[in-house]
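Open question from group meeting: does this chain pack into something compact, or does most of it stay loose? Before anyone orders reagents, we agreed to write out a predicted structure and look at it together. Recording both the input and the output here so the notebook holds the full record.
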Amino acid sequence: MKGKLKLKSKVFLYFLFLFLFNNSCINAQATILGITPTAPKFKKHIEFSPAFSYAVINNRKEVRSKFKPGINIGLQYATRSWFSWSAEYTYFFKHNSSPGFVNIIAWNAELNGICAFRMATSKLNFRFVFGLCYLNWAGTFVGPSVNDNNTWFAGKKIEQEWLGANLGFGFEYPFGKNVKYFIDCRSRFATEEFDIISISDTSFIGGVKWYLPTDKSAVSSSSNSRKKKNHKGRFGIYKWPNKR
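Structure tokens returned:
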């Protein structure tokens, strides 16, 4: 008789343990699911990206492998979480190129598509840049000529402009919710007088991307709070008391 009671008590304790263990697991799972943040939905937005440029400019006129500093300003429109259109303007500081030219002023405008893909599980993104560019370049010739052009004389102003194509790659890393650091290596391909297409210049561009959040939760919560101030009841309209 005692053996049967012990067996029943063991069976009862066993099922009680299973019940409690199962119940605790369900509660724990519900708690975890309750505090786990959901992935934010992507919303189209505009980004502003000031940057610094360091480039070899117009290597058909200037001495190659000599980098010149400049400022890059971009305005981007993100249409996907991984893609954005970018309109950019780069101004290069006045400089000289010896031998050949002095008082060189150059700038270019670009329209690019930028694809950004996350690398594994890290926050680092790989960027691929492609698009079109317009280059404007002007300098005063002082000689000697590097291409044996006999029509150039000392003091003559030489101007050049062309359309080209951009290709590049880089990386970007988020810093906070609305800011990202990025760095690119880009090459611009163009042709002079419809001859061989080659690299016109190569640049390194590094800067930050900043954008305004487009989350409307704050707006909706404020509108809801305004609605709660006035309430229409059975005996008329009355206001909710202010919280203390």
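Observations to bring back to the group:
The domain at 46-211 is CATH 2.40.160.20 (Porin).
The beta strands are 45-56, 68-78, 83-97, 100-118, 125-143, 157-174, 179-190, 198-211, 230-233, 236-239.
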